[in-house]
Amino acid sequence: MRLFKYGVLTLIFACSSSVQAEDLLSIYQQALDSDPNSRSAEEKVGIGATQKGQALGQMLPQVSLSGNWSANRYTQTGVITAANPVSHDAISNYPGTRYYLSLNQSLMDFGKFWAWRQATKVEDQYATEAIEAHNQLMFNVVDRYFSELQAEDELYFAQTEKQSTEKRLEQIQKQYVKQLLKITDLYAMEARLDQLKAAEIVSESKLVTAQAALTELTGSIPAPLRKLRDQVDYLEIQGDLQQWIDMAQSQNPAISAKQKAVIAAATNVTAQNAKHLPTADLQLNYYNTNTGYQSSQQLPYNVETAAINVNVPIFSGGIITNQVKEARYRLQMSKNDNEATMRSIIKETSDAFLSTNAATHSIKASQRALESTSKSRQAMEKGYQLGVVTISDLIKAQQDEFSAKKELAIAKYNYIKNRIRFMYAIGSIGEENLHEVNNWLESNNQ
């Protein structure tokens, strides 16, 4: 399994080594062109528009025209005439035509009106959901881009520490052969090397998973990604948390979409209740034919009708009553979804705000820790050469230094991902945020 994962990594890097590194904006453009979720959200907007058009069409005039042409054969048996006193059959053949033109226009139908109002609200809901899907895509691009960079760094640190430990082990083995070291020192270094090999396998798996997550957005394996620059200003988010929560509640498109869904569900309740009300419509008919009763031939005649039809629902087997109940249940479900989304956004806003600001402190602390552990490792190496420090102390110092490097890198990535998560939660994420983060990346010539 390990060989397979490592082979996948090698193949990916080999295929993309000659290609320029991708930045955040190019990955975003690839995702924008190929992400099926965003495209589906846009298609739903079209569906909403057509549903509203269908509901409106129910209130507009309905005109239909039908025609009929027939070949008629009329036979009368036992006919006796003065010219022909012998009984015989009288047969006549003639073509027949019928034309029927009908126009119906609703004059009063509250059910159709409220169905149109509901379709209008659903269209607004779908449009807001499309905005949310676009925001979700931008957040996913940033999150998965830097998750892959983080996985690459973790693998790099594991491999670098492993290589350093392997060299150190070779030196210890030579010293042990010369009986300059104890067997416990050799065992300690071998144990540490085994730990690093295991950490490398885990890091390889994380990288494959992170690459697969990014590929899911773009639809193809991206080229190597541009790295994060060393000099970036990691600033805290200013302002009061409650003010940011209020902003999220007022402008987050996910909340707005759920609120519009509640309005649409409430309108549907009214639409279903309206089916209990009387309806009235205007009917205009024009009828022309030269074929009479039982296909008898006669002179052409026209029938013109103008009528107002009134329908009063009395009993429909409980269908309308149950439709109203269903609409009310759906309204309550929409309210529950809205409440759940509201709570989730409040939690996301709070967590992203606090995590972003905590990451700024973590970055500063990790930088100081890296400086300290680097100096400690250098001192331990000198002490080990002088014989005043054990190999275990040196291993611990090396481990602390690499851990500090890893924690610093993770803190930087956490800051970026949480900051974008915060912008997404308050509903303010936009392409300008992607441009800002993209400027934090190295250029291709670096």
Question: Would you write up a description of this structure?
Answer:
This protein has 446 residues and is α+β, with helices and mostly antiparallel strands. Helices cover 66% and strands 15% of the residues. The protein has helices at 2-16, 24-34, 36-57, 110-177, 183-218, 241-251, 253-273, 319-386, 391-425, 431-438, and strands at 62-79, 88-108, 279-291, 297-311. Strand 1 and strand 2 form a beta hairpin. Helix 3 packs antiparallel against helix 4. Mean pLDDT is 87; it is low at 1-18.
Give the secondary structure arrangement, pairings included.
Blueprint: H1 2-16, H2 24-34, H3 36-57, E1 62-79, E2 88-108, H4 110-177, H5 183-218, H6 241-251, H7 253-273, E3 279-291, E4 297-311, H8 319-386, H9 391-425, H10 431-438
Antiparallel strand pairs: 1-2, 2-3, 3-4
Counting H and I runs of at least 4 residues, what is the number of helices?
A: 10
What is the typical, i.e. mean, pLDDT?
87
Compute the number of structural domains: 2
Largest sheet geometry: 4 strands, antiparallel
User: Superfamily at the CATH H level of the largest domain?
Assistant: Outer membrane efflux proteins (OEP)
